[in-house]
Amino acid sequence: xxxxxxxxxxxxxxxxxxxxxxxxxxxxxxxxxxxxxxxxxxxxxxxxxxxxxxxxxxxxxxxxxxxx
Length: 68
Prior knowledge:
By secondary structure, this protein is an all-alpha fold. The protein has three helices and no strands.
């Protein structure tokens, strides 16, 4: 079965009795995005905050906490 990795991780976490496991490979990687107006004053602060969280490993830590 091919599915969105974060969604299936979440499903497997909430249904541990399923006889399924995640494949150790990724066929294609896509990112999520936030949609805001180009002139929004939040644009740069959001970008900077997300980059900081990624560099500090916090994005992956949050994903592991929620999905594993």
